[in-house]
Amino acid sequence: MTPSTFAFLTEIVKTRSGGIIGPDQGYMLETRLAPLLKRESLADLDALAARLKAPRADALAQEMTELLTTNESSFFRDTRPFEHLRALLPEMHKARPAGQPLRIWSAACSTGQEAYSIAIILAELGEADASFKARRVEILGTDITTAVLARARAGVFSQFEVQRGMPIRTLMKRFVQEDTRWRIRPEVAAPCRFENFNLLGDPRRLGRFDVVFCRNVLIYFDVPTKARVLGGIAQILAPDGALYLGAAETAMGVTQALVPKPGERGVYGLAGSAEPARLRA
Ligand SMILES: C[S@@+](CC[C@H](N)C(=O)[O-])C[C@H]1O[C@@H](n2cnc3c(N)ncnc32)[C@H](O)[C@@H]1O
């Protein structure tokens, strides 16, 4: 691949998804795009670049971009955010009028483990408290990558995937085994819906959210793109809402619209909004 091909292909990815591919990641293009080259009968990445410069290459450019996203995920990833959420949701439930749904957004949800981890917490909270069970809760999972959304909607996971991060009792209770795979029980999955959404777009069309998980995606963006995405999230977050970022991510120094919740790493609220008393450190 020539340097100009590398620059051309990585610019397409940055424009379409925000993802930055560094000069040391040429191998990633070679390996992830090999099946695409084969299918399109293209000799190499230079030939792909030439094809993408021709008219009507939009679908191919999008497919290439999606192939270059990293979709790693696991159930209850990093544990702590989910324990924080488990304590937060009953507080939010009490603070809201009956009949108002609690809305949770798993932005960049990949194959759905994050959304379903939240759904499992909801099921557990509902079993412990009939009043919470009566609360309508919506979980929206979104991603830019069509293939992972299809997997998220299917709600079926391999033995390897369910073994990562999930207690065995939770697995047995919340999933049904189908040969070597595990399907999330429909009643647990019921609050979850999955749709395509590009974080570079305007999230206001998705409505207002009480909780946003936007984890392990900002790491792929440059600072202006992080600021744009976080600014958008600040616009749709409820005044007492919570934003969860990944362990290697921060909003500090990126936007002033979001501030860390006292005493918690990786959990943010809107700048200048009052904290519910019981959640103050
Ligand atoms: C590493 S996964 C994170 C999954 C999950 N949030 C977690 O922490 O386990 C990153 C996801 O971000 C998605 N993604 C990348 N750029 C995106 C964009 N501009 N808009 C929406 N999703 C994007 C990728 O398709 C990928 O599924």
Automatic annotation (TrEMBL):
<dbReference type="InterPro" id="IPR029063">
    <property type="entry name" value="SAM-dependent_MTases_sf"/>
</dbReference>
<protein>
    <recommendedName>
        <fullName>protein-glutamate O-methyltransferase</fullName>
        <ecNumber>2.1.1.80</ecNumber>
    </recommendedName>
</protein>
<dbReference type="InterPro" id="IPR022642">
    <property type="entry name" value="CheR_C"/>
</dbReference>
<dbReference type="Pfam" id="PF01739">
    <property type="entry name" value="CheR"/>
</dbReference>
<dbReference type="InterPro" id="IPR000780">
    <property type="entry name" value="CheR_MeTrfase"/>
</dbReference>
<keyword id="KW-0808">Transferase</keyword>
<dbReference type="InterPro" id="IPR050903">
    <property type="entry name" value="Bact_Chemotaxis_MeTrfase"/>
</dbReference>
<keyword id="KW-0489">Methyltransferase</keyword>
<dbReference type="InterPro" id="IPR036804">
    <property type="entry name" value="CheR_N_sf"/>
</dbReference>
<keyword id="KW-0949">S-adenosyl-L-methionine</keyword>
<feature type="domain" description="CheR-type methyltransferase">
    <location>
        <begin position="1"/>
        <end position="255"/>
    </location>
</feature>
